[in-house]
């Protein structure tokens, strides 16, 4: 048996040494190590080896298998290296590379970066919160009554457990006031979701940037001055905008802000871009009730809040006539924003 194993090893190594291609190498592997290979057959004969010789024969069998396997692996690596060298032989490394197309940020990312940059200069800190919210954070804490239309299933995406996809990032303002005491000055960019019909100026999943400033003696003049500075920094000193009295349950008084949109090939028109107002004392009272202290006593602190659609900021900043262009991933449209 030992002599037979020596013969198998000699024949296998000799066969491997003469190999010049991978197909032949595979044939040799099968001939010796395959299910019907000579070494496999020899291993099956171990049952007939006398008990006093099994140790020596078993050790020799392992040595032969390792020697053949090692030779196969070495030859395979050599064949691969030669194949790679032949493939690269025709390549001229001195040739200039092909230019790669330059990518760019999505217009929403561009406008968000610019908006955050301006507001950070004004002292606002970034805050964030979950997109799946509770009714308390999204509605109750914001003085939104139970019969308000926004709480209907026709307007809001609800889950079976009673939670919902936030309809605005105002919930981040509530979560911030739960954790921090005045003065608070934060902005909360993020996604919001409503059951809106998708058209040129509405999407069911959109992007907001909301702000909150709470301190002693915060006034409506502070709010107007903040937003006027912000919009002129974003759109230029000649930007046309207007404040219109409005109603929101969480601010009093409340306003909507319109900016005149100038889109190429289209007549100019006013487009609503933001809502704002002084924080309703009822909001401070509800937050104080949840906190269990007087940090947000409505007799001692005041504040303003604002919220704007980043999608609509992008429309105005880049003269985009239709919001749907922002979600269609049309490369012809997006290539316009490459740096």
Keywords:
339 residues; alpha+beta; BirA Bifunctional Protein, domain 2; 2 domains; seven-stranded mixed β-sheet; two-stranded antiparallel ribbon; 11 helices; 9 strands
Characterise the protein shown here:
It is a single chain. Strands 1-4-5-9-8-7-6 form a 7-stranded mixed sheet, with helices on both faces. The longest helix has 36 residues, at 54-89. Helix 2 packs antiparallel against helix 4 (54-89). The model has no long low-confidence stretch (mean pLDDT 88). It is elongated and about 100 Å long. The protein has helices at residues 2-17, 22-33, 38-44, 54-89, 107-121, 135-138, 170-179, 220-235, 281-291, 310-318, 331-334; strands at residues 125-126, 132-133, 164-165, 184-193, 205-215, 241-248, 251-261, 269-279, 302-309. The chain starts with a helix and ends in a 5-residue tail after the last helix. It folds into 2 domains: 2-89; 107-337, 2-Layer Sandwich (BirA Bifunctional Protein, domain 2), CATH 3.30.930. It contains 11 helices and 9 strands. The chain is α+β, with helices and mostly antiparallel strands.
Briefly summarize what is shown.
41% of the residues lie in helices and 19% in strands.
The total tally of domains equals: 2
Distance between the termini: 75 Å
Q: The CATH topology of the largest domain is what?
A: BirA Bifunctional Protein, domain 2
CATH class group of the largest domain: Alpha Beta
Count of DSSP-assigned helices? 11
**Could you say which structural class the secondary elements and strand pairing correspond to?**
alpha+beta
CATH-level-4 superfamily name of the largest domain: Bira Bifunctional Protein, Domain 2
Based on the coordinates given, report the CATH architecture of the largest domain.
2-Layer Sandwich
Spans of at least 5 consecutive residues whose pLDDT stays below 50 are: none
Radius of gyration: 36 Å
The biggest sheet amounts to: 7 strands, mixed
Strand order of the largest sheet: 1-4-5-9-8-7-6
């Amino acid at each position: 048996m030992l002599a037979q194993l020596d013969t198998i090893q000699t024949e296998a190594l000799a066969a491997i040494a003469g190999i010049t291609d991978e197909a032949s190498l595979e044939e040799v592997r099968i001939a010796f190590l395959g299910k019907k290979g000579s070494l496999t057959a020899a291993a099956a004969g171990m049952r007939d080896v006398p008990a006093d010789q099994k140790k020596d024969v078993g050790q020799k069998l392992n040595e032969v298998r390792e020697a053949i396997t090692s030779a196969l692996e070495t030859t395979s690596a050599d064949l691969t290296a030669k194949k790679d060298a032949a493939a690269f032989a025709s390549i001229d490394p001195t040739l200039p590379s092909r230019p790669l197309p330059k990518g760019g940020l999505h217009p929403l990312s561009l406008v968000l970066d610019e908006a955050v940059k301006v507001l950070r200069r004004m002292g606002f800190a970034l805050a964030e919160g979950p997109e799946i919210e509770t009714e308390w954070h999204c509605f109750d804490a914001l003085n939104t009554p139970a019969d308000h239309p926004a709480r209907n299933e026709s307007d809001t995406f609800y889950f079976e457990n009673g939670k919902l996809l936030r309809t605005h990032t105002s919930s981040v303002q509530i979560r911030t006031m739960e954790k921090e005491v005045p003065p608070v000055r934060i902005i909360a960019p993020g996604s919001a979701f409503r059951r809106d019909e998708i058209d040129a100026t509405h999407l069911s999943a959109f992007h907001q940037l909301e702000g909150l400033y709470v301190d002693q003696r915060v006034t409506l003049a502070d709010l107007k001055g903040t937003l006027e500075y912000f919009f002129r920094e974003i759109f230029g000193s000649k930007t046309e905008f207007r404040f219109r009295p409005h109603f929101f349950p969480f601010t009093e008084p409340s306003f909507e802000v319109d900016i005149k949109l100038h889109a190429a090939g289209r007549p100019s028109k006013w487009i609503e871009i933001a809502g704002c107002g002084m924080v309703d004392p009822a909001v401070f009272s509800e937050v104080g009730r949840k906190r269990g202290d007087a940090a947000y006593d409505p007799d001692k602190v005041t504040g303003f809040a604002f919220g704007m659609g980043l999608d609509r900021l992008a429309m105005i900043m880049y003269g985009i006539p239709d919001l749907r262009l922002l979600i269609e991933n049309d490369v012809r449209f997006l290539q316009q924003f490459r740096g």
